[in-house]
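As a warm-up, study this chain.
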Amino acid sequence: MEQPTGKPLQSLAGLWNISFGFFGIQIGFALQNANMSRVFQSLGSSIDDLPALWVAAPLTGLLVQPIIGHMSDRTWLGRFGRRRPYFLAGALLATIALVAMPQAGGLLYAALLLWMLDASLNVSMEPFRAFVGDMLRKDQHTAGYAVQTAFIGAGAVVGSIFPYVLDHFGVSNMAAGGGVPDTVRYSFWAGGAALLAAVLWTVLSTREYSPDEQAAFGVHEDDTDEARTTGSLAARGFGGAFAWIAAGAVVAFIVRQWNLEKEVYLLAGLLAAYGLATIAAILLARGGRETSMLASIVGDFSGMPPVMKRLALVQFFSWSALFIMWINTTPVVAQNFFGSADPASAAYQDGGNWVGVLFAVYNGVASIAALALLPFLSRRIGKARTHMVCLLAGAAGYASFFVFRDAQMLLVSEVGVGVAWASILAMPYSILASSLPQQKLGIYMGLFNVFVVVPQLLVATVMGSIMKHFFPGEPIWTMAFAAGTLVVAAVAMMGVRVPGESA
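Now compare it with the structure written out below.
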């Protein structure tokens, strides 16, 4: 019997080519994260409506990522490869959305374009996580995700700081009669071009290993594993599914009884929808539909490896904090540090530009920390403790918004946020990389990102109700929630056991 051979060792140039597309994808995400609240408010949205308008982004990620992961695991288009067709298709659609976004004539049009943009970015992004596992040996996984994180940070710096730089070169930062200013408009157009160019670089400079080559490396398509997954699903009862549906009904009742924001009904609908999807998946599995996408996704979700389940809890709280930051930093900085909550004022727009600088700083810190700090700490205290320390650094960064009074001092705050961001992007994936079955990297990476998306949905639906009822007109308190959730994430990390590391 022929013995499997190892994958070739990738050079630095190879690591660069594999992940360079993420540089462009993150430019798109950075422009979205730093500017969409500003775009919405410039088009007439009130601060209370921002979470509802942002719901589109995480909802598309929740639906798209597991589906794309499942499909890309099963795709092979010859010389076009397995993951690269998804990179390119998503990049083309995201570029169209970025070009059209600044021309949005109203809130509904802008919200629909945000939906399209986020869905397209997710189509490109999700396979990139699996692409590292496809292309690299296990002893290069940490290096691969570190390089990917560095490109994420670099792309986010470029995307975040663009409006600020254009303003300093004399581009108008105010739109006559309201609307989206030219600094944001030109940034979106340039970002679309950069996104497409970076993804094309990876598509054209890399060649994916064919199924035969993967088999030679010891990676096989395992039909028996798929059968075990659906077989386990077929043996399940419907009690759990009905519990999810009941949970959705309870949430809907609470929303109506307490007169909460109507967006919270989305949470109720998602809980009930997962229960219904589980019922359908069980019926498909019992009917022998082993190749059903729904049965496979639900079965893989319920059969996640233990370390993945524990890291999922950490991700849940980590990304809750991040989404709170992305939605609220612009109104917090504009109101508390630039003295204006009016989107039509010059002070507010100056605050929006400064948020772009702050986001560029935390992403720049993340890019450096991914290549220098994280490997250094991991070698000395282990991956799990490294992630705990970095999450606590991020919590301190958010908490410092209550300490500083000068907008310039917020640069210090962003150092802590940047360290946490680097770790969130790299350490969980580094911990998972060696424990996930190679032939199912796409679907498991997609399912892991459910725990990135669900907290964003909760923040977008629940945070608005909390702020409106308890802290009306005081967005600064969102930073206290962000700090608290990162502390909870750090505590949850204590339950994660990494093979080879002491408890």
